[in-house]
Amino acid sequence: MQFKLESTDVASQARAGTITLDHGTIETPIFMPVGTVATVKGVHQRELKEDINPDVILGNTYHLYLRPGVPILEKAGGIHKFMNWDRNILTDSGGYQVYSLSSNRKIKEEGVKFKSHIDGSYHVFTPENVMEIQRSIGADIIMAFDECTPYPCDYKYAKRSMHMTHRWLNRCINHLEKTPLKYDYNQTFFPIVQGSTYKDLRKQSAEYIASVGAEGNAIGGLSVGEPAEEMYEMTEVVTAILPKDKPRYLMGVGTPINILENIALGIDMFDCVMPTRNGRNGMLFTAHGTINIKNKKWEDDFSEIDEMNITWVDTAYSKAYLRHLFTVNEMLGRQIATIHNLGFYLWLVREARKHILAGDFSTWKNMMVKQMDKRL
RNA sequence: GGAAAUAUUGAGCAAUUGGUUGGCUCACCAGACUGUAAAUCUGGCCUCUUAGGAGCUUGUAGGUUCGAAUCCUUCUAUUUCCA
Fold this sequence. Notes:
Blueprint: E1 2-8, E2 15-21, E3 24-28, E4 30-33, H1 45-52, E5 56-60, H2 61-66, H3 70-76, H4 79-83, E6 88-92, H5 95-100, E7 105-107, E8 112-115, E9 122-125, H6 127-137, E10 141-143, H7 155-178, E11 188-190, E12 192-193, H8 199-211, E13 217-219, H9 228-239, E14 248-250, H10 256-264, E15 269-272, H11 274-280, E16 283-286, E17 289-292, H12 313-316, H13 319-327, H14 331-358, H15 361-372
Parallel strand pairs: 4-15, 5-6, 6-10, 10-11, 12-13, 13-14, 14-15
Antiparallel strand pairs: 1-2, 2-3, 7-8, 8-9, 16-17
Helix pairs in contact: 1-14, 6-7, 7-8, 8-9, 10-14, 10-15, 11-14, 13-14, 14-15
The structure holds one RNA strand of 83 nucleotides.
């Protein structure tokens, strides 16, 4: 992997750069659409590639391990071939499932025992086998196996968990060195900063993560319910420590406003289910605020979905028609909303990049944040 | 013309056969959603409300009873059957 830092904003920590991997170059800042089970839900590859056009998407180790399973992914020749996506892919390690499936798992030093949400069977994830699974899935960027702590999280637990995540990180690195690549392209490994909402822990974790000298670094354990201000404080503490010449990935963030604010704090990569999930649930993100397209007020609003026409669906369909599709529960409505939202998210980070390169990011960001903080 | 059945909120049903229904599903109206157990979940949905409550309610008008959606009678409407 190669990271080239092209420009840093004068009035903030915002950066523009490029990450080059074997499946192409990623222009940062970037938003990575989430495709948990080898599909960005509701979007065909053609729309994803031609209309939304991200340089990288996400997959999830836990979910892919359960279905279709490692043997099938290996037989397919890796996830790229399996889902016919020839650009970059990043897989999350399953660390988030330690948090989101908390009622179905047990954490020990050795690893995490999960009860499958699909058939109730038990599975153990360790730093070692998660590395092997990610080798088999074959993403370009693979993540350390960590514990994503909940919010709120008491100090004692957060500290203990952070240290365990650090110990797990060592095991990930040791094991990865012993595990050969399965396909004919490289994989790069990102460790993850934890420490909940405690500045001293975040600082300590960032220092530790920086010390392992990975090609890129991630921040986890945020956007789990804490107030946005607290999230920004943590990002600020961490980005001050993480190396400037490596990409920084803030996991699971966020709203369009969260993304702009974190870009300003020096984050290069984002991912979030929000544009896809909220889209499927009838919420549209626009440059002028959010729209709940299911609301009655759109019933006879025949104006186009979004006059900005970022993706073709924006002007191809009216708000009233889209509301109708949601009302009658037609899948097309969810598809249109998803394409619109992802198109908007990718537009937003590309605009951010343009403004960083042009040198007026902060003024543009402040204007956008104000403008988007509305409900239409 | 005769006989029978039925009538509960916008719709469809339920209510331990006389024991406190404003119960369920759908529809509708809102809200939520942040490294996806999510085409999901939560709330509202007779009226008023100062949000704690208050009031009215089982087609209609009476009756029996301590007590009626439930039993009896009147009328109305709908459905089925027979002529």
